[in-house]
Structure formats: C-alpha cells, structure tokens
C-alpha cells in the first residue's frame, strides 16, 4: 500500500484492524465486505492470513476461516468482477517437512517442483488456498499467481537456541544466503506478478533472495556452510569479524528463485553480497521501506522471553 500510493496508483486497503493504509475495516471471509471493496478493482493482492506465529494462540478453525474461506470469498468476488489479475501471498513454510532432510543428508534444494508436506495448520491452509487459486484459474479463467515468500518479517527468530547463539541482524544477514528476502523485493515481486498474470494465466513462484549456491553445494552446506559461503560469495569475512558475527555452521535448505526471475521478469536487488555491502556502508541491513514499516508484531499482547509462543512452550 505504501508503494502503490507513493507511486500514484489508486488502491483499496482492507484489514481487520484500522491503520494508516486501511480504507475498509473488515474480514476477507465476509462476502459483503469483499464485494464492497471489489468495485472498480483491476487487480487483487491477497496478503491476508493467519501466520505461523498464530498456530499456538488461535484455534484451527480460525485458520480455515481466514486462510481458506477468506481466499475463496476473494476469488469468488474477483471472478465475478472479472479482475485482470489475482496475486496471492503464500509461504515457503508450506513446504513443511520437505525442508528438513534427515541428519547427515545434503541440504534440500527447494524449487517449485518440490511437493509440500505441511506440518501444521498454517501450512495445510496455505496449501489449500493455493489449490483454490489454481481451481479458479482452471474453472473461471481467472489469471492467478501464487507467490511463496520466504522470511521477510523483522521480528526475532522463534527458535530460542538461534536467539541465544546469534545476534538478530547476524542471523538475518546469514539467511539472505538461502531463506530470506528483502521487503522491497517482495513488493516488487507482487507488482511484477500483477502485471504478468494475464500472460502467465497461472503459476506458483518462490520469492526469496537470489542464492549464490548451486545444487552441487548441498552436501557440503549441511557439513561446512562457511567454507561454501567463502567459495561462492567471498568478501563477507572481514565485515563479520569486526562485528563478532558468525556464519551458520550448517544450512539445511536453499530456496531457488530462478523461475520467478525468468517468468515474472523479477529482479531482486538484495542478495547476500548486497546486504554485506549495505552493512558496510550504513551499519544496518535494513532498507528504507523496512525501516519505515518497522516491526508490528503478530499479537496485541506481548509474551515473556519470546516473540510469540511456539509448540511446547506453554
């Protein structure tokens, strides 16, 4: 919404909580609310969802209500309105257990051919929503793009061991190698998808920073990641050393964004090398948009010692 309005594009913001970019307060699962918002709309950017941080705080039926029914209500209204493009924000988390190779196995190379194995209600409902998008393309001829985004949230990691072992910016910088993307690049991917959707008709795309790794690196990444990083992307060592930062010893998966770059014409600006250079120049890994947005959190309340509850923590 910030980017669209800053560039002069009219847009309607729908959210369950009022904010500076909200035009309509309501739920995507409310068909009357959705119908009101759909008038005169050319493209739908569907980012409404319950997330992984809600798994321990919200009942499963709430995930079905928002992630599945909400997507269905939007698709129904978009098909009736004959919008030019429908873009759904999904998640690489929906790959679930496919992201976790057994001990001693090579890192998993994740592209769009990998079959999701959802491990929680979040993954199940996002996968179901993706299938609904494909159904509406097939049966209603709705041009639909699904973007499976990797990590771009500013909050701390939910893993207490990761929080204890690495400074937050250290972890996030490391993740640009294999599982993180800048919010600026996420926005650009959505705008590119909305533009290309009529020509593509339907597609699912991984949206993550461009990795320097190659599939043949996977075996060594699981055993000695710093050596592979120095081979594929040298120049980070001094900047890390002067901050007392460390590279992850092991990397268990790598997201491949090649298909999104090819089909969408998407050109992500922020890979690991660019992040290290920004760190050197500004002492901060965040870009202007990330700084403007800040960290909003996922809940109205705060939790002791963690950004949000995770399985087994309460």
Task: Set down the secondary structure blueprint.
Blueprint: H1 2-6, E1 14-15, E2 24-25, H2 31-38, E3 43-46, H3 60-81, E4 85-91, E5 108-110, H4 121-140, E6 144-149, H5 160-165, H6 168-175, H7 183-200, E7 202-207, H8 218-221, H9 225-232, H10 237-243, E8 253-255, H11 258-264, H12 272-282, H13 288-293
Parallel strand pairs: 1-2, 3-4, 4-6, 5-8, 6-7
Helix pairs in contact: 2-3, 3-4
Structure commentary:
The structure is a single chain. By secondary structure, this protein is of the alpha/beta class. It has a domain at 2-164 and 180-210 and 253-269: NAD(P)-binding Rossmann-like Domain (Rossmann fold, 3-Layer(aba) Sandwich), CATH 3.40.50.720. The chain is built from 13 helices and eight strands. The strands form three sheets. Strands 3-4-6-7 form a four-stranded parallel β-sheet, sandwiched between helices. The chain has a two-stranded parallel ribbon with strand order 1-2. A two-stranded parallel sheet has the order 5-8. Helix 3 links the parallel strand 3 (43-46) and strand 4. The longest helix is centred in the N-terminal third of the chain and has 22 residues, at 60-81.
Helix content: 40-55%
Terminal CA distance = 36 Å
Task: Give the rounded overall mean pLDDT.
Answer: 95
Please tell me how large the radius of gyration is: 20 Å
Going by CATH, the architecture of the domain at 2-164 and 180-210 and 253-269 would be 3-Layer(aba) Sandwich
According to DSSP, the number of beta strands is: 8
CATH H-level homologous superfamily name of the domain at 2-164 and 180-210 and 253-269: NAD(P)-binding Rossmann-like Domain
CATH top level assignment of the domain at 2-164 and 180-210 and 253-269: Alpha Beta
Low-confidence stretches: none
Helix/strand/pairing class, anyone? alpha/beta
> Main sheet: which strands, in order across?
3-4-6-7
How would you sum up the major sheet? 4 strands, parallel
Q: What's the SSE pattern?
A: HEEHEHEEHEHHHEHHHEHHH
Beta-strand portion reads: 5-15%
Which term fits the overall shape?
globular
Tell me the number of helical segments per DSSP (H or I, 4 or more residues long): 13
CATH topology of the domain at 2-164 and 180-210 and 253-269: Rossmann fold
